[in-house]
């Protein structure tokens, strides 16, 4: 069995003999690697550790996660229940019948609330089943509460865009409750006279230990929820008769989403951005909002029965995010707020990345991770996701738009704005002007990017006198961004004259929100983040980038009982152990890299160092324009397409290199005078990933070409739209080819800062661990090696993600060709997933000729004919 602190990269889990045959209630007969995976998950949860687990796509990872975690959860709850029956007194001298009576009474007390809820849920399931049967038979179902799509809670007058007075002393909005004593406000809140959803009674529902399952998108969560519906688990409560088998118990599942996903108020839901929906929702709850304009779906003291009804229906049936919205409409209660009542009794809660990783989102939903289990799927990009959530970027064009919109707003409402509103808006204008002047100056410099000195950034007139903390709070409390954006939209809708580009609002988040986010980053400086400027051919922008995701994720790890990171391509894992969990001892981390469910004969992996003409393949920065190498790559592809049937997918290191290669292949080459590109098109129908054409359109044409027997050649980009979340199973991906190693630009300001941060962090931690007389030169060498390893890992994680597009189930087969002599280096080979690097076709330091590959490909696909 895998154990804490033991790397499983070398563990042959396909032949792993388990110490015990734990019943994980898998709906099918699990493969050996699935049993090993489930055993490892169970062990991580039981010991309260962090698990980093890799199981290739097509190996049933989601179902294994469900079976292992819910089996552990029911076991854990069963043990806790048995411990609850022990009242802690010495009853050894009591008669057996008295002990039995006391135990039975204690059991009834512990089960009373639980049985009441289970009874309600069973009744709801029976009703929903009957309704479904009536629907299938053609009978009418119950009527839903109508949601008036025409009802608009917005005023039509321009006064709706005017800011409310801002309290200069308390720095808070002047609502109708301002000036009242705290005791009066508390009494009003108790009576339900203050806006906002009522606070849940703590004693109403008992908190259950639960599993928070997180993935990147709701579509991925929907797939997981579908797998959840396949499973059945015995009740956590053992039967009174020890000889009886426990009865199965339905899973109490809840899925959470943002207001944008769950809002059922038509007037709010139609807003353009997430931030606008959030702000308008909060605005409709304020006591200063007229009663006729408040949201009628918001939970309050009068409709608590609807909230309880929603809670029970949400838990009674396994539902996805769309089902939750439909349930809210049917009952007539806001599903975003009402779903909070179902969190405590739920056993498993599914939610997307942002709702788990952002502390503010967890607090808004009332989520506490204390003592619970956190499982993050598709975790290969977790560190990038954390950095993305805490990073912000704003362009010069956006700053000019914000300035133009603010100017128009001030021109219209200057006389209606009082006191602090005028002061703070003037400060926002000065700040935007300062940021714009900085970027305009940098735009004329030769450097494409660089780090930003905050003093230079805020060098505008009077900016040094601005209290940024107060200004950020003002922007958040006043809803200035949405007011200005809404007014700009109003002007456009009522004015047929074309507006200047800078004055037009964008359909995404209001530009002032970007300004507010940037200010938040400026007011929370830390060694983990850095400001950059970056120029493109079209614009220049400011960016705050989080360099170290570890502190942001540490709070989740500290609160949770156990954390599991799972994915199909988690290799190389050293990034997670060294850079996401540097504060954890090795004994608290368990890693596992599974093999594949396919037979070894269904995969041919090959590292190709030379082309048909003997040209060395080494797609480094210095050789990227080597025409002889590019031509030989084209000839290699021609030969491969001759042997490989159906679909061939080629991943290039960048869009720019793909475009340059296509340009070179379009040139006619002696002696045939026919271009490589035209010759490729005679072999297979050719398609190219593009930023302009949708992925769906390209994939549909590619699949059609394969179905008609022509075959298809799809030219894609590592890290592009085709490299993640796309399924090239069976005939769609009989061969995946990776061209070169897609290293990030180490010369960019951002990567220089990242690598420098890793080196300095390593030196700091090593000096605290090592004796003072340790050779500093050696430590500096180790620090550079650590940074280099991180740099290589970023490249290889992208390669592994692209390679994982092929072979999606047990009977699938494909060839994987890695085109670059550097794939023969040990440090690169070791970073490939276990199921690939163990293939006999990958040889360290290989200088094999191209003919050897062709022979192996021919034999491989001849052996698959008729499969």
TrEMBL record:
Q: Which residues form a coiled coil?
A: 107-134
Pfam short name (any one):
Helicase_C_2
Q: Which UniProt keywords apply?
A: ATP-binding, Cell cycle, Coiled coil, DNA-binding, Helicase, Hydrolase, Iron, Iron-sulfur, Isomerase, Metal-binding, Nucleotide-binding, Nucleus
Note the SMART domains from the entry.
Answer: DEXDc2, HELICc2
Residue ranges of every copy of the Helicase ATP-binding domain listed in the record: 20-433
| Main location per the UniProt record | nucleus
Cofactor(s) it depends on: [4Fe-4S] cluster
Spans annotated as Disordered:
764-784
Gene Ontology CC terms:
nucleus
**Gene Ontology molecular function terms on file:** 5'-3' DNA helicase activity; ATP binding; DNA binding; hydrolase activity, acting on acid anhydrides, in phosphorus-containing anhydrides; iron-sulfur cluster binding; metal ion binding
Going by the record, the broad EC class of this enzyme is: isomerase
Low complexity bias locations: 764-775
Annotated catalysed reactions = ATP + H2O = ADP + phosphate + H(+)
Similarity remark: Belongs to the DEAD box helicase family. DEAH subfamily. DDX11/CHL1 sub-subfamily.
Biological function: ATP-dependent DNA helicase important for chromosome transmission and normal cell cycle progression in G(2)/M. May have a role in changing DNA topology to allow the loading of proteins involved in maintaining sister chromatid cohesion in the vicinity of the centromeres. Has a specific role in chromosome segregation during meiosis II.
**What PANTHER family does the record tag this protein with?**
ATP-DEPENDENT DNA HELICASE DDX11-RELATED (PTHR11472:SF41), DNA REPAIR DEAD HELICASE RAD3/XP-D SUBFAMILY MEMBER (PTHR11472)
The protein's name is ATP-dependent DNA helicase CHL1
Read off the lineage from the record.
Eukaryota, Fungi, Dikarya, Ascomycota, Pezizomycotina
